[in-house]
Amino acid sequence: MSDLPTYALSEEQELLRATVRELAEAKIAPFAADVDEESRFPREALDALVDNGMHAVHVPEPYGGAGADALSAVLVIEEVARVCASSSLIPAVNKLGSVPVLLAGSEELKRWCLPSLAAGEAMFSYALSEADAGSDAAGMRTRAVRDGDAYVLDGVKTWITNAGESRFYTVMAVTDPGAGARGISAFVVDRDDEGVSFGPKERKLGIKGSPTRQVVLERVRVPEWRRIGAEGTGFKTALATLDHTRVTIAAQALGIAQGALDFAIGYVKERRQFGKPVSDFQGVQFMLADMAMRLEGARQLTYHAAVKSERAMRGERIPDLTLVSSACKALASDVAMDVTTDAVQLLGGYGYTREFPVERMMRDAKITQIYEGTNQIQRMVIARQLLK
After folding, report:
1. What is the 8-class DSSP label of residue 70?
2. Active-site residue numbers?
3. CA dihedral of 378, 380, 383, 385, whole degrees rounded to 10
4. Whole-angstrom distance, CA of residue 101 vs CA of residue 83
5. Do residues 156 and 87 make contact, with C-beta atoms less than 8 angstroms apart?
6. Running DSSP on this structure, what letter comes out for residue 182?
7. How far is 352 from 6, CA to CA, in rounded Å?
8. What digits encode the pLDDT tens for the residues 245-293?
C-alpha cells in the first residue's frame, strides 16, 4: 500500500464545501437572477453568509474570526460563485480589503477594524485603482499629506468593488511624490470619515449585484495609527496582497465555470433532438469532456496556489508565490470564459436568454479576466518571474 499522501482536501474541507454548497443553493441561488436583473446588492446572500459565519472566514481567531486557512476561503468563494458571482464578492473582497492590514497593520489597527469584519458588522473594500492608474497602479494621483499626527487624503479611487456597502477601505495614496512607487503609503479609511463620498454605480456587463463605484476623498483626515505599515511601503503591501488575493479571483472563476458546467450537463441530458437526448451525441460529449478537463486542471492549480498562500501568510518564504498566484488567476479566468461560452452554446437559443442562468454566468465570467490584474498583466508577471 502506498505511503504517499493523497493530494486532496481534508475531511474538514470536504465538509466545509458541502456545507457552503447547501447554504448557497438554499439561501443565495433563489435570488441570483433577481439580483442580476435589478442590479441590486445581494442582501439575502450577505445575511445568509453572516448568519453562518462564511462572510470572512479568513479573519484570525484573536480578532473574533474563524481563522480558516486560504484553501478553505477558496472553497467558500468557489461554492458561492457557483450560484451567484455577485454574492461571492462578499467573502472575496472582505479578504482583499483586509489582507493588507493582516500583512502589515499595527496591532492597534487590527483590533480596531478586524473584529467588526469578523462579526459581520462591517465589510472591507480595497481602493488602489484610479481612472489613469489601473495596470499602472504606481501612477496614482491620490495624495496623503501629513498634518501633525494625521494625514489628509485627497483623490478619487475608481472601480471599487462593494463601494458604499463596505465600511472600511484600504486606500493607497502618494505620500512622497518624488519617490515613485516607494512614495506610496496605505491607510484604512472609514466610510463615516468626514469628506468620504461615493460616485454613481457603474453600469456593468456582469456582477451587477456587486456595486462598483468611485470612492471620493475630499480632505479626509486619517489618524496616523490608521496607516498600514511604515510610510512608503504601501505599494509593496499592495503587491504582496495581490499574491494572496489573485487566488480568490481564481476561486470565483472556478465557481462560475462549475455552475455553468453543472447546468449544461443537466440540460443536455433532458433536451431531446432527433429522438434521443442531446447528451448522446458525440460532439456534445466531447465539448463536456473538454470543459471538465480544463476546469479540473485550473482547480488543482488554484488549490496548489492557495496552500502556498497560506504557508506565506504563516511566515514561510515561498519564492514562487507570485508566479503560481498569477498563473492560477489567469488560467482559471480563461477557463471560466471558455466554459461559460460553451455552456451557452450547448443550450442553443435557450442559452442566449435570461430564462436560463448560463448567459449570466458568461457575463459574470468576463470580469475575472480583468480585475486584480488583467490576464495580459498576469502573463507579464509570470514571464518576469521565469526570467529573473
Report:
1. H
2. 372
3. -70
4. 30
5. no
6. G
7. 41
8. 999 999 999 999 999 999 999 999 999 999 999 999 999 999 999 999 9
How many helices and strands in the chain, by DSSP H and E? 11, 10
Q: Which three cell numbers stand for residue 336?
A: 471560466
Place of cell 471538465: 292
Please state the pTM of the whole predicted model. Answer: 0.97
What is the amino acid identity at position 122?
Answer: A
Mind listing the pLDDT tens digit for each residue in 120-157?
999 999 999 999 988 888 889 999 999 999 999 999 99
Beta bridge partners of 152: 145, 221
Using CB atoms within 10 A of its CB, is residue 16 exposed (0-12), middle (13-18) or buried (19+)? Answer: buried
Give exposure, 90-127, as e/b (b: 16+ Cβ within 10 Å).
Answer: bbbbbbbbbbbbbbbbeeebbebbbbbbbbbebbbbbb
User: Grid coordinates in use for 264?
Assistant: 449544461
CB-neighbour burial class of residue 192 (10 A; exposed 0-12, middle 13-18, buried 19+): exposed
DSSP assignment of 81-104 equals HTT-HHHHHHHHHHHHHHHHHHHH
Comparing CA positions, the residue from 75, 63, 90, 124 lying closest to residue 306 is 75
Cα 359 from Cα 340, distance rounded (Å) = 8
CA dist 82 and 258 (Å) reads 6
DSSP code string of 15-69: HHHHHHHHHIIIIIHHHHHHHHHHT---HHHHHHHHHTT-S-TTS-GGGTS----
**Which residues does 307 contact at the CB level (< 8 Å), separation at least 6?**
70, 71
Determine whether 237 is exposed, middle or buried from the number of CB atoms within 10 Å of its CB (0-12, 13-18, 19+): buried
- What is the distance between the alpha carbons of residues 351 and 119, in angstroms, rounded to a whole number? 40
Q: Would you state the cell numbers that stand for residue 148, as one nine-digit string?
A: 501633525
d(CA 124, CA 190): 10
Task: Say how far apart CA 295 and CA 338 lie, in whole Å.
Answer: 10
The answer to whether the beta carbons of residues 192 and 165 sit under 8 Å apart is: no
Cβ contact 191:166 at 8 Å: yes
Longest dimension (CA), the chain: 79
Q: How far apart are CA 32 and CA 84, in angstroms?
A: 6
Query: What grid cell was written down for 14?
Result: 470536504
